[in-house]
Automatic annotation (TrEMBL):
Membrane-crossing residue ranges in chain numbering: 24-45, 51-75, 109-130, 161-183
Natural source organism: Adhaeribacter arboris
Record-given protein name: Uncharacterized protein
Superkingdom field: Bacteria
Keywords: Membrane, Transmembrane, Transmembrane helix
């Protein structure tokens, strides 16, 4: 019995990490917008009115949507929007993509499980490190004493700031690359080579 190549089995996870590496600045910039938005929403810099809270929510979710579309287009927003438009407006295209996805899911179920398990392990490690940073260091106290955060700020301010810079963008990239991989739209299926 021939065992599968582990690198090929976690192909879309490797492509996700490669995409993040290649487009790190854009991903971090979008993450910073969301991260600071969350800090402001949580009152990290002081109380805000309800209308500003809603505006910030639109901005935060907008940056996440922008990142997802950016990845779907393999670093091209226009191409990502076109892919979404084609799925929503072209019924034949939608059925072809669903059939291709179903066939690939049935054929490569082990790869799907391996990718998700590896993704969950990485995400759990990142979340654990963020939790340690928030609860086991004096970062929050230092930021409060330095006048950067208000005295009413909680650990959640730090946790959500760093989650918006790390695990949330990682998840969005992973999900978008998964959709491309599942529908055979991933141009480069060789693990380790940078896509996009």
């Amino acid at each position: 019995m021939r065992l599968p190549n582990p690198a090929l089995e976690v192909n879309w996870l490797i492509n996700s990490l490669s995409f993040i590496k290649k487009h790190f600045v854009i991903i971090i910039a979008l993450g910073l917008i969301a991260a600071f938005g969350r800090v402001i929403q949580l009152g990290g810099f002081g109380k805000i009115p309800t209308w500003l809270h809603l505006v910030l929510e639109v901005i935060i979710e907008g940056t996440r949507l922008l990142l997802f579309v950016y990845v779907l287009g393999l670093a091209n927003l226009k191409a990502g929007l076109l892919k979404i438009k084609q799925v929503l407006t072209q019924k034949n295209n939608r059925h072809q993509l669903l059939n291709a996805a179903w066939r690939k899911a049935k054929k490569q179920w082990l790869a799907i499980w391996l990718n998700f398990i590896c993704f969950l392990l990485i995400a759990a490690c990142i979340n654990y490190l963020i939790e340690l940073l928030a609860y086991e260091t004096c970062l929050l106290l230092s930021l409060k004493q330095g006048g950067i955060l208000t005295n009413t700020s909680s650990e959640w301010t730090i946790m959500l700031f760093f989650k918006n810079l790390s695990v949330i963008p990682f998840t969005l990239v992973f999900e978008a690359i998964f959709l491309l991989w599942l529908t055979d739209k991933l141009q480069n299926s060789h693990p380790g080579k940078v896509i996009g």
